[in-house]
Specification:
Blueprint lengths: L1 H9 L1 E7 L3 H4 L5 H8 L3 E7 L12 E3 L7 E3 L1 H14 L4 E5 L8 H7 L4 E6 L7 H6 L3 E3 L10 H12 L10 H4 L18 E2 L2 E2 L2 H4 L3 H19 L1 H5 L1
Parallel strand pairs: 1-2, 1-6, 5-6, 5-7
Antiparallel strand pairs: 3-4, 8-9
This protein binds adenine.
Adenine binds next to loops.
């Protein structure tokens, strides 16, 4: 009953537009995301740009005006698929995945997890015609300061990060709240059985049953780890 209630409130739909949707089909078919889809918590629709391509050869890209190496995605196919989707429902954000954009953070993921309908555009080649950005794109996101061969993996990364925050997707709802970055710190180390492995022991405090001491130890460890590996997070 509660799940049905959450479901009606937090249902999300993500449309991903790509020249090679096959690249990421499997990403959404298994494990946590696959189960979330089966349970109706999220719908993911992959759209192949070639279905909107031009002419006999379903052309989707072309040479760059002004010269330069690499092809650019033409505006017409992208515009056609986006206009079609927009005519069917309202979209909260139309996001273009591109390395020349602000880098994704957990804050952005948290914000996007509260939306209902999102379009993610995976670019390819040298990018997309600038007019699509002007006409349709409401947000641009990079997943890091490096260049991938297309926007499909970045779109999958973003969708995964968002979907796992939708209520009901993770079994233990607190586990998303204790993720790295949710409190600005990296996660503390975790252990499972056995209590000793190859001479390495699980810290005594974790076996003590003293929840306050365990909490304190985790906070200290999270802080120490962040200081060592990501001091920039503490400066923020
Ligand atoms: N497309 C290619 N590289 C990318 C990146 N780092 N982030 C988002 N989209 C991309």
């Amino acid at each position: 009953m509660i799940l049905v209630f959450l479901n009606t409130i937090f249902f999300m739909r993500i449309d991903i537009v790509s020249a090679v949707p096959k690249l990421i089909e499997e990403v959404f078919a298994h494990s946590i995301i696959g189960r979330a889809r089966q349970r109706g918590l999220v719908e993911i629709h992959l759209h192949d740009l070639h279905a909107y391509g031009l002419g006999k050869y379903k052309q989707i890209d072309d040479y760059m005006y002004g010269g330069g190496a690499g092809m650019v995605l033409r505006p017409e196919p992208l515009d056609a698929v986006i206009e079609k989707l927009k005519s069917e429902r309202h979209y909260d954000e139309i996001i273009f995945m591109t390395p020349d954009a602000p880098v994704l953070t957990q804050n952005t993921v948290n914000e996007l997890s509260l939306k209902q309908n999102l379009i993610l555009i995976a670019g390819h080649y040298k990018g997309i015609d600038e007019r699509i950005r002007k006409l349709h794109v409401t947000k641009e996101i990079s997943i890091g300061d490096y260049v991938l061969s297309g926007g499909e993996l970045p779109a999958a990364v973003l969708a995964d990060a968002i979907i796992r925050l939708i209520p009901g997707v993770l079994n233990d709802e607190t586990s998303a709240l204790t993720d790295s970055f949710q409190n600005g710190l990296l996660s503390p180390p975790v252990y499972t059985r056995p209590a000793e492995f190859k001479g390495l022991k699980v810290p005594d405090v974790l076996l003590s049953g003293n929840h306050r001491a365990i909490e304190k130890w985790r906070e200290e460890q999270a802080y120490k780890k962040t200081l060592k590996l990501r001091p920039d997070l503490l400066e923020k």
